[in-house]
Amino acid sequence: MSSRKIIHTSKAPSPIGPYSQAVMAGNMLFISGQIAMDPNTGELISGDIKTETRQCMENLKAILTKASMGFEQVVKASIFVKDMKQFAEVNEVYGSYFDAATAPARETVEVANLPKFVNVEISMIAIR
């Protein structure tokens, strides 16, 4: 049986439901979807899709850091967007966090709605 550990940091938003920020199972880290919420104020970051995406990525970075990992260890990402017409802008910000040659597998899905009616949510799986 592999070990299971809950990962939590105050540098990312606290869960808004019955889930953990992340779970380390053996050498794999499963990070819950992150939205553009400021972990210090609990307020949503709004404005444009690039700003929202950057906050999502910074929240993911904080969780990876708490687990002593980084973006280079991410093997899978899932991006959910309300409007696929904003994909290029989301992709530009998302891509700035990875080396294109070693970027993780990923899917991007347009959805009808997201928690708190945000425009983007991103989850990740990383491996040690």
Question: What's the arrangement of secondary structure elements?
Answer:
Elements (H helix, E strand, L loop, with lengths): L3 E4 L14 E4 L2 E7 L14 H18 L7 E8 L5 H9 L9 E6 L9 E8 L1
Parallel strand pairs: 4-5
Antiparallel strand pairs: 1-2, 2-3, 3-6, 4-6
Helix pairs in contact: 1-2
Name some characteristics of this structure.
128 residues, alpha+beta, 2 helices, 21% helix
Please describe what this structure looks like.
The chain is built from 2 helices and 6 strands, in the order βββαβαββ. The chain is α+β, with helices and mostly antiparallel strands and 128 residues long. It has a single domain (4-127), classed as RutC-like (60s Ribosomal Protein L30, Chain: A), CATH 3.30.1330. Strand 2 (22-25) and strand 3 (28-34) form a beta hairpin. It comes from Muriicola marianensis. Pfam families: Ribonuc_L-PSP. Belongs to the RutC family. This is Reactive intermediate/imine deaminase.
In the residues, how many domains can be counted? Answer: 1
Task: Based on the coordinates given, report the CATH architecture.
Answer: 2-Layer Sandwich
The global form is globular
Please list the strands of the largest sheet in the order they lie side by side.
1-2-3-6-4-5
Superfamily at the CATH H level? Answer: RutC-like
Largest sheet, described in full?
6 strands, mixed
**Number of helices, counting only DSSP H or I runs of 4 residues or more:** 2
Q: Gyration radius, to the nearest Å?
A: 14 Å
Overall strand count: 6
Distance between the termini: 17 Å
Helix content: 10-25%
- The overall pLDDT, averaged over residues, is 96
Order of helices and strands: EEEHEHEE
- Provide the CATH top-level class: Alpha Beta
Low-confidence stretches: none
CATH topology: 60s Ribosomal Protein L30, Chain: A
Structural class: alpha+beta
